[in-house]
């Protein structure tokens, strides 16, 4: 599916985040007692991040990006005492807000992606890999990232040359090799499987 119209919330993320956070605190007024104004601002900032991921997932037509983000968010917020139900409620409020807006080209797809994210809140927190042989060019993406992790850029670039020579589309190489590898590097760093230096080195090569 291709979204030719840029999602409205690319330009209205801050406004939407405020609306959703206010609705959340209205539903649960004890949140102000527990976290105060600083907690409200942090909750709004988290909502901004979530909307950015949703917008990017929609623009790239990559539900997997948003689903992985929710898996990571579950792990992160658990350390602050927030539950899956808290995340799910926030996503449901975002969903309600989108449904209340005027229907646009991207609305139905955004709802689909949000519903996948809501489903993810009910699953184990562990975030699955962004690279799998079940995905298009998954085997090649694994070989490419393994080469980068070994600091063997020559092998990594040779693999890309081979893909181009065999007729793979540039946009597919970008999405399924570069983009997937970049997300996987971020995941490896978040789960402390690679160092900051390794993350920076691989991330630069993936861009």
Write the layout of secondary structure elements.
Blueprint: H1 9-27, H2 30-59, H3 63-78, H4 84-100, H5 107-120, H6 138-149, H7 153-165, H8 170-190, H9 196-206
Helix pairs in contact: 1-2, 1-4, 2-3, 2-5, 3-5, 4-5, 6-7, 6-8, 8-9
Question: Would you mind describing this structure in some detail?
Answer:
It contains 9 helices and no strands. By secondary structure, it is mainly alpha-helical. The protein has 2 domains: 9-120; 138-206, Methyltransferase, Methionine Synthase (B12-binding Domains), Chain A, domain 1 (Orthogonal Bundle). The protein is globular, with a radius of gyration of 19 Å. The two termini are 24 Å apart.
Q: TL;DR?
A:
The protein is mainly alpha-helical and 207 residues long. The chain contains nine helices and no strands. It has two domains: 112 residues; 69 residues, Methyltransferase, Methionine Synthase (B12-binding Domains), Chain A, domain 1 (Orthogonal Bundle).
């Amino acid at each position: 599916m291709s979204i030719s119209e840029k999602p409205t919330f690319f330009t209205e993320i801050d406004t939407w985040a405020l609306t959703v956070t206010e609705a959340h605190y209205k539903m649960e007024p004890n949140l102000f007692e527990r976290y105060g104004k600083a907690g409200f601002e942090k909750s709004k900032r988290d909502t901004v991040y979530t909307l950015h991921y949703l917008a990017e997932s929609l623009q790239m037509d990559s539900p997997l990006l948003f689903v992985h983000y929710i898996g990571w968010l579950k792990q992160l917020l658990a350390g602050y005492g927030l539950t899956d139900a808290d995340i799910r409620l926030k996503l449901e409020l975002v969903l309600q807000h989108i449904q209340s807006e005027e229907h646009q080209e991207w609305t139905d797809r955004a709802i689909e992606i949000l519903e996948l994210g809501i489903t993810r809140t009910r699953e184990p927190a562990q975030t699955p890999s962004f690279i799998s042989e079940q995905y298009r060019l998954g085997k090649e993406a694994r070989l490419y990232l393994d080469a980068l992790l070994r600091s063997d850029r020559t092998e990594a670039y040779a693999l890309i040359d081979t893909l181009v020579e065999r007729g793979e589309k540039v946009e597919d190489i970008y999405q399924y090799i570069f983009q997937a590898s970049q997300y996987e590097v971020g995941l490896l760093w978040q789960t402390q499987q690679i160092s900051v230096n390794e993350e920076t080195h691989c991330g630069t090569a993936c861009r």
